Amino acid sequence: MTPFPNSAGTSTRSEVGAFLGALLLYGLFYATFFIQSFRSGNLLAPSDSFDYGVADYLSPVALWTDSMFSGFPFGADPQSFIWHPLLQACRLVGIDWNIFLIAAYAITGASAFLLIRHLTRSNIAAAFGGLVCSLNALMIGYVANFNVIHAFAWVPLVFYGLQRIREGAVRGGTAVAGVAGALMWLGHSQISVYAVYLAGFVVLGQLAIDRSRLDSAAVRVAWSLGALLLGILLAACMFLPAMELSAVSTRNETGWELYNSSLLPPRELLTMWMPMVFGGFWTSGGSVPPLTAGDSPYVGLLPVALGALAPFVSARRGEARLWCMLAVLELLLSMAGATPVGTLFYYAPGFSSFQAPRSEEHTSELQSRLHLVCRLLL
Fold this sequence. Notes:
It contains 18 helices and two strands. The protein is an all-alpha fold. α9 runs parallel beside α11, α9 runs antiparallel to α12 and α16 runs antiparallel to α18. The protein has a two-stranded antiparallel sheet.
């Protein structure tokens, strides 16, 4: 059974053309969106983006420096982005930092556009989905963490490659998912770990939807796993030195306290729909102090409404239900040890190594929101 028969006849040339065209258009959109940064001459680099990103971007390329402490391995530090081909290409040509940072938004939009267009054959759905994806909470809220948004930019392309493997184009799909995965891993590893877990759940869920035979299911799992491993291997030039450097980092120890340090308290779930329900809004007499533990997980009313309707009205209800279940799972994971599921995932390899588990919700909100919304546009 072919899961998406309307995608079977898609040519590689048209897919590449669609991606490049979307990249250009989203690039123009975000150049306009951030036009004030260009007009003012200021760097679009708040917080860490200035302290680490701009400093490394303007510094000479070096694997090692004697100017910090008794020496420091730049090549082992993911923040330096030394191994990322996009940064090096921008530096080689002399492109402004603002353009490099904004490129993450254009790539995110184009990658999501390609994935959704391939699934739905609808340019309208793809264009809308690309905007939703590139304007999601992580991309806007983490603009200060340039390596986070540049890692996230390639996540939709990883899922595009896995979808091609699902349709039988195993070599091409593996190549796309592998290269996109490498570019993702060369960014922030937290985003990459979350994306790989999500990819595993998606592949298994799609096998259940397609009711694949055991032999064909084994082949698909093998190719999908190979694609994800290929991304890790291609990024090993940064990945292995970074693991060695992390052993002497001041944040090398993980534990239950770190895992729960920025969890989303269950009582604050209401802020998904009403972000200021616990205070924090401005009035003429001053401000109302928030009674929350951190950032609001607000996602808006439209995505929630569309997500609730999709399993009942979508032409592909199995797919919609899968993404709804994943959205619920990701919401539970964002609450970390406050739920049994979050407690269980504390023991999952790599999952508990990072602070702020609520980023899990933001990371894969992209996938659940986009797929559900686009199926309503068919």
